[in-house]
Design brief:
Layout: E1 8-10, H1 11-32, H2 40-65, E2 68-70, H3 103-155, H4 158-161, H5 165-192
Parallel strand pairs: 1-2
Amino acid sequence: MKASKKPYLKGKTIFIISLIVIAVTAVTVWLTGINYNRALTSNFYISLSIIGTLLFAFMTYGLYKGLGLQDDFPNYRNYTKGSLFNYQAPGGFDSTDTDVGDGLSGLIVSILLWIVMSILILVAMLLLEAIFWFSLFIIIMMLYWVFFRALRQVFKHANSTSGNFTKAVAYSLSYTFLYLGWIFGIVFLTEII
């Protein structure tokens, strides 16, 4: 008789499910609030309730089925510490005087300086855009890691809850309260303060 192989979810699957839950929550709050003028805290409560319900259902299902998590998070640790910014920053920035004089030569030099400065501003904007997308990539990777680590803590109990619905619900309820309870508390405190 063969032993059944434990089913595993990949970290990418968890992250995609998390993005779907965020999208469903945003659309639901928006659609239900079109005709109502709700307070921001009410929207937080509705959003957190939807996320909590879906998180509870997902964790209960996973614990009941005995799911495990497979770490397929890419390894971005191939750099050495301090190698990202290994240049010496200058002490200050001195701008030059751009008074080019009057007449035809001044007009030509002004136009050339305008073109050069426009190119420099365009390059700076492209660099800032690259920094923005790099930062967005880093934030997405951090969220992926947080979601994976949080659910990994939950699914490490999958061996003891597999096939036991009551135990799966108890673990799911406690972890849902643990992961979302403090956010409910912060929203409540901002409302009463």
